[in-house]
Amino acid sequence: MKAITWHGKHDVRCDTVDDPAIVNPRDAIIRVTSTAICGSDLHLYDGYIPTMQKGDILGHEFMGEVVEAGPKSSLNTGQRVVVPFTISCGSCYHCSKTQYSACENANPADNQDIGREGYGHPMPGLFGYSHMTGGYAGGQAEYVRVPFSDVGPLVIPDESIPDDKVLFLSDILPTGWMAAENAEIEPGDTVAVWGCGPVGLFAVQSAFLMGAERVIAIDHFPHRLELARKFGAETVNFEESKVYEALMEMTGGIGPDAAIDCVGLEAHGAFADNIIDQIKASTFLGTDRIHAIRQVILATRKGGRVSMPAVYGGFVDKFPLGALMEKGLTLKTGQTHVQRYLQPLYAAIAEDKIDSTFLISHRMALEDGPLGYQKFHDEQDSYTKIVLKPGQAAGATAA
Amino acid sequence: MTDSEMRSRTAGQDDAPVTASKTADPDRKLLAEAVTINRPARELYDFWRDPTNLVSFMDNIVSIEPIDRDRSRWTVKAPAGREVSWESVITKDVPGEEITWQSAEGADVANSGRIEFRDAGRRGTVVRAVIAYDPPGGVIGELVAKLFQREPRIQTRRDLRRFKQLMETGEIATNARNPRILAGEGK
Ligand SMILES: [Zn+2]
Ligand SMILES: [Zn+2]
């Protein structure tokens, strides 16, 4: 089959690789009909995530049709499913508490040592996201082996709902929702969202649904800010305005009640300290660029809540630990417990309460995936979200 | 390995297990690893008590053949395509709680160990493995290290994790894309 594979920094290819097949009883094989490139795939593309190996199949946002089901899978051939990016067993203690991304069993035993070494505990099992998260083949491919297929995938019974509307249940939609949930929004709150990528834009929508009175969205791409405005957010362009000063004035000197960092490693802004952090990261001093979270902590009101869905990989310096403590902030973070949110968010989509298609700017053939990565990386303002369609004729990029 | 040895040497001051000691006796290799499994202690004990079950999640084991109720012959992969074999004897057996074993007199690979199953309420069962073998540097120690192929502690930890996966999920997690790739990994 064809698949998008990682070969090194800024080097992804469309290779021909071994087809997947059932290995364990709970497996299913999915024929991919739609798969997206995620902002966090750019961290892999930029070479920031360790333990990637040449030839690894990328992709963790995908959906498709069940073509084979193992004897203990609950799926049936022909069913249409969206697959969560978190692989979860459903039977460990953490899964029983619906903390699916903390699943203890999905990451193969041999790969668990890596996370234990760096983080104190093993990493979760994720599709297409390095060997510390299991080394699983991803969904930017014609076919995918889905382990524990009785726990993850959501069956979409309604054939009239197109892929575009439900694809993002696999990651960015529940991630944006959990980001807002972690901000513990109360009716009347002012919420600030750093980063208007897909997760940020879903966080904006979710914050309003949870009762936020005002949402202030911060970014520098005009088109992304425009999308945030469409959902009712006020916006701050950090290339034109000082963020802290703007937020203080807009909130009468109080600061936002809750803040959501949807930037993380992806801070492509041209800040002096960003560049310093970038040099450190590229020389493997293991330091993340944390400009956004620094700004978040300084701006959030005393006693406020900080939610950090953004991906960070390693260690930081100049982290405002004192401000976090002195102001009495709560910090919540973590990989998304995707399975927890599938049913309610699917219902919200079906009832048109959440718009999930506005993001898609481009659809491409799987073969054009490498071009997609390059465009998504270099032209983020116009390439807001790329969906790869296996089977679509190559070169036929459609908006 | 006695019970009192397994508890604390500095009773009343330090509840840490002796295997976490910073000044462990350098003349013997002793390691312990614990994992919590979301199943009842009795079920885990029963599975472990049948030595033929252990092959499914322990790396490097070729076969475990029961001789009688307490004795079994272990055959393990050794470097250069060789195999090493020894007889293992259960010396203490508390149903539902613990199994202690040691290699029979004259074994090439002298080893002993204990597996404990302690009820952990709503979290299931804490399973703790304690393994003792002769010191590195000695012939036996070197052989043990080679048999484990990795540091014995890491190997023990991985075996316990696979045990947990098998008991909680009914299968052992793998990232192999298909059975052919799985076989190529030698598992
Ligand atoms: Zn993602
Ligand atoms: Zn689990």
UniProtKB/TrEMBL annotation, chain A:
Keyword Cell membrane on entry: no
CDD domains per record: FDH_like_1
Keywords: Metal-binding, Oxidoreductase, Plasmid, Zinc
Domain Alcohol dehydrogenase-like C-terminal as annotated: residue spans: 198-266
Domain of life: Bacteria
Gene Ontology terms, MF aspect: oxidoreductase activity; zinc ion binding
Alcohol dehydrogenase-like N-terminal domain residues: 25-153
Family from the record: Belongs to the zinc-containing alcohol dehydrogenase family.
Protein name, per record: Alcohol dehydrogenase GroES domain protein
Organism: Rhizorhabdus wittichii (strain DSM 6014 / CCUG 31198 / JCM 15750 / NBRC 105917 / EY 4224 / RW1)
TrEMBL record, chain B:
Boundaries of every Coenzyme Q-binding protein COQ10 START domain copy: 37-155
UniProt key word Iron: no
Keyword Repeat: no
Positions in coiled-coil regions: none
InterPro entries on file: COQ10_START, ORF3, START-like_dom_sf
SUPFAM superfamilies: Bet v1-like (SSF55961)
Region described as Disordered: 1-25
Keywords: Plasmid
A Pfam family reported for this protein in Swiss-Prot or TrEMBL: Polyketide_cyc
Top-level lineage group: Bacteria
Position of the signal peptide: none
Family the UniProt entry places it in: Belongs to the ribosome association toxin RatA family.
Name this polypeptide is given: Cyclase/dehydrase
The organism of origin for this protein: Rhizorhabdus wittichii (strain DSM 6014 / CCUG 31198 / JCM 15750 / NBRC 105917 / EY 4224 / RW1) (Sphingomonas wittichii)
